[in-house]
Amino acid sequence: MNTLIIAKRVLKQLQGDKRFLALSIIAPLIIIYFLKLLFDTFPPTILVTNFTIPISAFIVHFLSFLLCAILLVQERTRGTLERMLISGFRRSSIIGGYSIGYLGLATLQAVAVLFESLWLFDLNYSKETILILFIVIWLLAVVSVMLGIFVSTFARHEGHVFPFIPLIILPSVFLTGLIINTDALPGWVAFIGKCLPLHYAVNIIHEIIKPEYSLHNTYVDFTVLTSYIFLLWILASLTLRESE
Amino acid sequence: MQITNAVEIENLCKDYGKLHALNNIMLNVPEGTIYGLVGPNGAGKTTLIKVLVGAVKSTAGNVKVLGLDPLQDKWKLRGQIGYMPQTPALYDDLSAKGNIMFFAGAQNIPDLEKKTDEILNFAELTNRANDLVRTFSGGMKKRVSLCCALIHQPKIVFLDEPTAAIDPHLKLQSWNLFRQLAKTGVTLFISTHLMEEALLCDKVTILRNGEIIAVDAPQKILERGKTILKFSEGGEIKESIIDSTPESLAKELQRFGLNQSITSISFHPDNIENIVLNIIREKENSEQE
Question: Are B105 and A5 within 8 A, CB to CB?
C-alpha cells in the first residue's frame, strides 16, 4: 500500500515537471538521430544494424540509471527521504515506489527509442522480434532504475553520482560487446564485462536480430538480466541508509 | 505523583570524525511539557533532535523516547512521534494538502482528508490548500511542514527551529498551539536559536559546542541575570545593579525604606540573550582556567 503511495507521488512529480519529462524523452531521440548521421558516414562494409538496437538499449540504460540516481539523491539532500523514513515509510516501500514510478518513464523511453531506431534505420524486423527487443530494453531499464537506486545510497549529493559514470557506464560501452567483440578481449577484461547487465541485454539483442534466431539461445541471458533486478533490489534495500 | 519522562538521555555522545557534535548529554524531558533546546548555530541542537527521532546513530550513550529506543524500536516509535526538520522537506510539485496527505500515508489515519482540512485551517492555509508548495513563501512552507508533523496526533513532537522565518502573528499562533498541545499531554521538544522563545518553554536546556551548559526553568535562567534599578530621588537619578531575583529586589527596596523623597523607580532586567551569553562566557572562562 505504502509502495503505491510513493509510486503515485513519483509519477505525479514526473507529470508535473513537463520540462524534465520532455528532455528525458527527447534527449535519447536526438542522440539516436545523431547516431544515424554518424552511421551514414560509415562504409557499407560495416553492418551498422548490428550496433543500432544495442546502442539504443545502452542510451535507455544510461539515462534511466543517471536520472533515477540523481532524483533519489535529491530526495536525500532536500530532507524528504529522511522525513519519509521518520514518518514510517519502510525502505522496501521507498525502493518499490521509486521503481514503479520511474518504470513509467523508462517504458516511455524504451518505446520511443526503439521505434525511432526501427524507423530511422529502416529495420524490418518481425512483430515478434520487435516485441522481444522491447522486453529486453524494458528489462534493462528496470535494472538501470535499480542500479540508480543502489548507487544513490552511496551519494550525499548529486555530484557524488558522477564518479559512478566512468565506473559503471564506460565499462558497459567497451566491455559488454556493444562496440567491441568480447571474444577479442583478455579473459579478465571479458569477465568484468560479464558482470555488467548490459552484456546480457546485448547478447539477447544480437541473437534476436538474426534472421533465424532461436529464443532458446537467449534463456540464460534473460535469466541473468532478470536476476539483476532482484539482486539490485535486495542490495538497495540493504544499503539505503535509514540513519547516519 | 511520579513524573514520567517522555525522553531520557544518558551520557549521549555523537562524533563526526574528530568533531564532537554531542558530548556526554544527560537530559530528562517530562511528559506534557514544552522543552526548549536553546543555543547558537552549530551548538548540536539539530544533531540531538536527529538522534532522538532515529535519523542519526549515537556514538555512545543511551536514549529512550517514550520508553523506546529510537533505532531498535523505530517501527513502534514512528507512529507516536512527530518531526519537523529545520528545512521544510516538502515536495514542491505537490500541493500543501498533497504533502500532508502523502507523509500521513505512512500511518493508517482514519478520516485523513477531514483531519488534513482541519490542520490546514489551523495553519490558515485553507485558501492555499490545493496550490503547489513551490509557489509558497518560506513561512508558508514552515506552516505546511508543521502540519505534516502534527497530522497523526503524535505523543511527542520534535520541532527543529519551527518558528524561524515566520511572521510574528503566526509565531504567536504557533506558540498558542504548542501550549494547547502540551495541555492535552503532548510533549514538545523545540529547538530554537531565538532566546526570547526560551521564555515560552516550561524548561530550557542551553547547549554550546555539543555540551549542556545550563538546564533550568526560564524564570530561573532570567534570575541569573542582573537588574538595573533607577531611582529618581529629589530630581537626581541614581542607579543600583542587583541580582534579578525577587529576594534581591525586596532587599534593595528595603534598603531605601519607604522614603518619600523617592518619586519613581524603574526596573531594567537583563534580557534573556545577555543572560545566556553571560552563561556561555562564564563557561568558556571556567574552561580556560
Answer: yes
- A241 and chain B in contact, CB less than 8 A: no
Q: What type of residue is B167?
A: D
Name the β-bridge partners of B243: B226
- Chain B CA closest to residue A8: B102
* Residues B29 and B55 occupy one common structural domain: yes
Q: Which stretch of DSSP H or E encloses residue A127?
A: helix A127-152
Kind of pairing between the strands at B187-192 and B156-160: parallel
Q: Are strands B81-84 and B60-65 parallel, antiparallel or unpaired?
A: unpaired
Chosen for mutation from B81, B86, B91 (greatest number of chain A CBs closer than 10 Å) is: B91
Choose one of B169, B192, B221: the last residue of a domain.
B221
Residues of A in contact with B107 (CB under 8 A): 87-88
| Cα–Cα distance, B191 to B197 (Å, whole number) | 9
Q: Select from B168, B198, B221 the last residue of a domain.
A: B221
Do the Cβ atoms of A82 and B55 come within 8 Å? yes
CA distance B27 to chain A (A): 22
The verdict on a CB contact (< 8 Å) between B83 and A83 is: yes
Q: What is the pTM of this model?
A: 0.83
Count up the domains in chain B and report the number.
Answer: 2
Are B198 and B36 in contact, with CB atoms under 8 Å apart?
Answer: yes
For chain A, report the end-to-end CA distance as a whole number of angstroms: 27
Mean pLDDT in residue range B235-239: 82
- What pLDDT score does B3 carry? 63
Task: Report percent pLDDT > 90 for chain A.
Answer: 24
User: Is the pLDDT reported for residue B186 higher than 70?
Assistant: yes
Contacts of B131 in chain A (CB under 8 A): none
Residue of chain B nearest A84, judged by CA positions: B103
**Which ipTM did the prediction report?**
0.84
The answer to whether residues B20 and B161 belong to one domain is yes
Q: Are B225 and B274 in contact (CB under 8 A)?
A: yes
Task: Examine the domain organization and report whether B39 and B167 are in the same domain.
Answer: yes
- Alpha carbon separation from B48 to B4, B13, B209, B268 (Å, rounded): 21, 9, 12, 35
Mean pLDDT of B11-18: 92
Rounded mean pLDDT of B263-273?
79
User: Which class for A216: exposed (0-12), middle (13-18), buried (19 or more C-beta within 10 A)?
Assistant: exposed
The residues with which B208 forms a beta bridge, in sequence order, are: B211
Domain match, B57 and B147 both: yes
CB–CB contacts below 8 A, A to B = 68
A84 at B interface, C-beta within 8 A: yes
Kindly identify which residue of chain A lies nearest to residue B92, measuring between CA atoms: A13
